[in-house]
Amino acid sequence: MSDYHNASYIIIFAVQGVRNMAGTGAGGTNRGLYFDDLGAGQRFASETYTVDEGQIFAFAKQFDPQPFHLDGEAARTTLFGGLAASGWHTAAITMRLLVDGGLPVAGGIVGAGGEIVWPMPTRPGDVLRVESEVVETKPSRSRPDRGMVTVRSDTRNQRGEIVQTLTAKLVVPRRPVTEGSHLRDGS
Amino acid sequence: MSDYHNASYIIIFAVQGVRNMAGTGAGGTNRGLYFDDLGAGQRFASETYTVDEGQIFAFAKQFDPQPFHLDGEAARTTLFGGLAASGWHTAAITMRLLVDGGLPVAGGIVGAGGEIVWPMPTRPGDVLRVESEVVETKPSRSRPDRGMVTVRSDTRNQRGEIVQTLTAKLVVPRRPVTEGSHLRDGS
Fold first, then answer.
1. pTM to 2 decimal places
2. Which of A76, A100, B23, B144 is least enclosed, having the fewest CB within 10 Å?
């Protein structure tokens, strides 16, 4: 148990290239939110993503070729009770929704830790969306140019049921001190 | 911090349908290893998977459309220093290698927890393989038909460098008591 709980881990998890900046607390930058813009309780919502049977088959065939992801008939007798998307497919779709504006954090983020939960499977026809909430922000002690932001992202289906929770500690840059004062730094 | 560390999580992570049973400790079953067959220190090795630029682009375009996954030139100036596969792509490839015989555990596994680590990115041309090791086995107190098995799976490139570590607590069925004694149970 101790080995398991003490194991170090990191998720590198970049949300650069945000295309769909919702105005939520954007603080006037079009490059996403800096550490200084973020606070516990702040929430973000993604667009939606509709998952069909063909997508589930295609992902599973490539990455997770097991009966409950590949064959609706065979899946009925498994613990899934019917065709289910691979959890890694749900994770990949979640990433797409985050990148497409669901988590408008300043570019080039490196997460320092995370957890993934799949309480129930994604099914054919599901319409997924991601709701993210800032859980905690902590300035870095050693690196004044960044902070640690814990974000919980719930992926929900069209009935509001959670199919995945991803909790990640993200390294988010602080707003550059020169921004708005100098166009060139270090000159 | 406490919220983060206390958050419950689960990975449902099925490795049913194992096609490539290496003989390692298989205990005579061709359906994968039961809880009773597994012990700390037991190791499994997968086949290999070669990742090319086209695959990286295709996955990223679909699930993680960010410059360092989509454009080698643009990627040079990012923290990745060049084209890198999405971490979720590395995770998906790892799952494929586990399903294809890299982790020959008895079908229909549900994991009770896990961690994912990407210490370095997967690059075009990388040849990935997965080495898994049983970290701990614990019989379930409440369910005599199963046990908990913690497995660490390191995904390595052709230079032996770890690009991902996935540590999962898997629920593994115990060998059915009737196996080898009765063909019908509950009669």
1. 0.78
2. B23
